[in-house]
Amino acid sequence: MINRSGSQIREDFLRFFEGKGHRRVHSSSLVPANDPTLLFTNAGMNQFKDVFLGNEKRDYTRAVSSQKCVRAGGKHNDLENVGFTRRHHTFFEMLGNFSFGDYFKKDAIAYAWELLTSNHDHCFGIDPSRLYVTIFEGDAKVPRDDEAEKFWIEIGVPKERIFGMSAKDNFWQMGDTGPCGPCSEIFYDMGMGAAEEAGVDKPFPHDDQRYVEVWNLVFMQFDRSSDGTLTPLPKPSIDTGMGLERIAAVLQGVLSNFETDLFTPLIVRAEELTGHKVEPEHAVDERSRASLRIIADHARAATFLISDGVLPANEGRGYVLRKILRRGIRHGRLLGQEKPFMYEMVFAVRDEMQVAYPELKETAERVTKVVLAEEEQFARVLGQAERELDTAFYSARRDAQRPVILSNKPPVRVDLIELAITTVESNPGLTLEDVRKNHLPTLPDAYFEIASRAMREAKPILDGSAAFRIYETFGMPLDFMVDAARDAGIKFDHEGFEKAKEEEQQRARASWKGGSQKSAAPVYRELPKTEFEGYSTLRVDGAKVLALVKDGVGVPELKGGESGEVVLDATSFYADSGGQVGDQGWLYSGDHNLVVAEVSGATKPVQGVFAHRVRANHTIAVGDTVDTVVDGLVRAATTRNHTGTHLLHAALREVLGKHVKQAGSLNDATRLRFDFSHFTGVAEEELREVEEIVNRQVMGNTKVETLVDVPIDVAVNELGAMALFGEKYGEKVRVVKIGDFSTELCGGIHTGATGEIGVIKVVGEGSVSSGVRRVEAVSGTGALHEFRRDFDVARVVGAMLGSSGDGVTPAEALRARITVQEEEMKKLRRELDAVRMKAAASSMSDAASSAVEVKGVKVLAQRVDGVEKAQMRELVDSLRIKLGSGVVVLGAAVDGKVSLIVGVTKDLTSRVQAGKIVGQLAAQVGGKGGGRPDLAEAGGSDVGSLDAALKSAAEVVGGLLG
């Protein structure tokens, strides 16, 4: 066995199967194309799913790939195990060979054994005595896989090394229905050093750590129906999966995947960035080692996910990415690194993996900006999480103390006892005796005795569901919360936490079923493909109606006036795809004398099947023939906008930088909308430059070339075509080339030359989400309408402002006039505020003398209409100073709304709190509010009750003083 690098292993695997007639297929995106059943690409077969289902044909029957995969959410979730085991990862590479109805078990087994054990070129040369094989042992529905066992024995595997296993381990299925079959797994004996229990020699398969599965050969030979019946497939197929990280550990002679060269450079970089170097001989530092492994793994996952277009968010794929990033950041903090560091790991990932994934060279700069922004945001969120945890601790203590307080007879004032406890807990070093003597001297001694007993006897527990909410919402580490609870003398509800976590995982599994193709109604899945002829014509005669669908169910006919979908064997209608909306038009009768249905659009519910959305004018039945006629004017306007997006994409990259990548688009007859990766707003002068570049291309009337059936490797690597995020490409692609300015993979319909667009006018730019901007534009007649509108506005502005004669445009003149007026308005507002403040202060000059005294506390309540909240705060501060010690309550009516502010001098906050005062007053004016013990605010809607509320202020304060 030759020790080789991870990159060599990947290349050897691919070359071995190329030598066996397999087509090398590049890894697909981590975002599954046209498959809403998957959260992320999690296996090599994902990109071939439609081929296995029979919905897509390729010009090859054998394939080999190294597929990038992520398992960190939904059904497949390894996130919590990563870093603490030898072989769990969020991101990994799956090596696989595939047969689509070509070879089957015998050849698949022979190829696998040759690659693993032979010493020929590109083979691994593993000692066969360290390998074990499993087969399906059979069950009530499927017999034992004796055929596979026979082929393993023929290839040289001793019978005693072949083990039958249950369906749980050795029967694979794509989903609840569809292709399925038995499988054979190959295991490698890592030796006694890897044993679960040191020194304990357990036989295969009773030691999961020692015996490692390195390859799974899936034999797809049945089709499972909805009632569970298994029918032999007419063309059995092969799907295999070998984890690159695992086979690298085997071939490099290490026990953990993290000790291979796929990870060690990343771990070294993590040590440098966190400043925490772990010495191998320090066994006690295992937790730090785990943190470094987590950082290395999560840096790989985040880099590839963001490169493939996923951005941190609060739901879906973006939410999982956010969890991965924040878990990595947290472990950096555990190692002592408080500053952003994770974004630097992106460059380390790029340097290690750019040979196999050259796209990382282009995306790394953009990815680092996303990661840095998330690190900075997480730092802010952690502060909020700590405050939430403090609130949860407070609630836990009160929930535990209240039953002790309430057990006293006769009944007592719970709020006063809790005030005494809160005063102690919020002032470190303070005792109940201090509070009794210096802060609440009027409180009965019995209340302090009850408070002491409540604090002593209560057994507070941090509710598990509340802890999980903080964990899930803010990403606070579980061990951090457990340690903080212990330090606060609060028991942590582990059982409740795990229950809440399991409930969340069940919701996630329900949201992402994973597997069977359930997104389309069953009626579509059995239909042959529609022949699309719309690239070259707007009309197809004699198209046969294959199916009619109404409300998701197949029907024999649609009557006049009914709406539904029509599937034809041929069509000229383009279906929604690649951002271009489907065509509109008409279906004519076979003699072309009658419009039988009006078409409002078309979609592809299943790959290759075109469903036309129609409203029938006359009865149309399955088996009828119709002529398809596309509305040429709508098609022309749509294609102008589609070609415009290609020009806009190239121009944005020229002006803003090569990090710009399409993140979505919409092209219809009225406009074009283009989403792209960029971190700041596009300046007006940059938009103007983009617009000028685009229109120079339009005026140049450059020919728009469409190259058909280009091998995807040639398109991307030789022609430099851009592959767009979220799009699914086959092995042969269409390339749309606009001179030397733009080259993209695109299945849409375009103008013949750029001059047909007429002109492009950018009409808007804004933010879509973090790191994604949107530009909207119009072309052709749409741009003409926009220019006419702008001209009308300019004419009106010119009439208002007159002509300056110095070359100033109407827009510049209007902008200057508005700026001057805004400054005037600001100046007038400042003057008005000053007058109001002066008037209010003057009216309050002797207000302190009108304060009333309640139980030894001065209370001043005044109405100050017309004063803004900021000014009310200033007045409160001023009046508190004049009072020296006391409570200030100000109320104002502004625009039909009530504003209340309560201020309490610092010496009184242990006796009476501003938040409790304002809460009671706010209730009287139809509102609510809160704040700090010394300052609180509230709003309300009942202006008529404001005077009464202010008059009651003294009574409210007295009640709270007890």
Description:
- Helix 8 packs antiparallel against helix 9 (316-334) and helix 22 (780-801) crosses helix 23 (810-843).
- Helices cover 40% and strands 23% of the residues.
- With 962 residues, it is of the alpha+beta class.
- Strands 1, 2, 5, 6, 7, 8, 9, 10 and 11 form a 9-stranded mixed β-sheet that branches. The chain has a 6-stranded antiparallel β-barrel with strand order 15-18-22-21-20-24.
- It has 5 domains: 6-262, BirA Bifunctional Protein, domain 2, CATH 3.30.930; 413-510, no CATH class; 522-630, Elongation Factor Tu (Ef-tu), domain 3 (Beta Barrel), CATH 2.40.30; 636-788, Threonyl-trna Synthetase, Chain A, domain 2 (Threonyl-tRNA Synthetase, Chain A, domain 2, 2-Layer Sandwich), CATH 3.30.980.10; 848-961, Diaminopimelate Epimerase, Chain A, domain 1, CATH 3.10.310.40.
- The protein is globular, with a radius of gyration of 36 Å.
- The model is unreliable at 512-519 (pLDDT under 50).
- 41% of the residues are buried.
- Belongs to the class-II aminoacyl-tRNA synthetase family.
- InterPro entries: aa-tRNA-synth_II/BPL/LPL, Ala-tRNA-lgiase_IIc, Ala-tRNA-ligase_IIc_anticod-bd, Ala-tRNA-synth_IIc_core, Ala-tRNA-synth_IIc_N, Ala-tRNA_ligase, Ala_tRNA_ligase_euk/bac, DHHA1_dom.
- Its cofactor is Zn(2+).
CATH class identity of the largest domain: Alpha Beta
Helix content: 40-55%
Derived structural class: alpha+beta
Number of strands: 37
Q: Overall pLDDT, averaged?
A: 87
Rg, Cα atoms, Å: 36 Å
- Count of spatially separate domains: 5
| Largest sheet: number of strands, sense, barrel closure | 9 strands, mixed
CATH topology of the largest domain: BirA Bifunctional Protein, domain 2
Count of helical stretches: 27
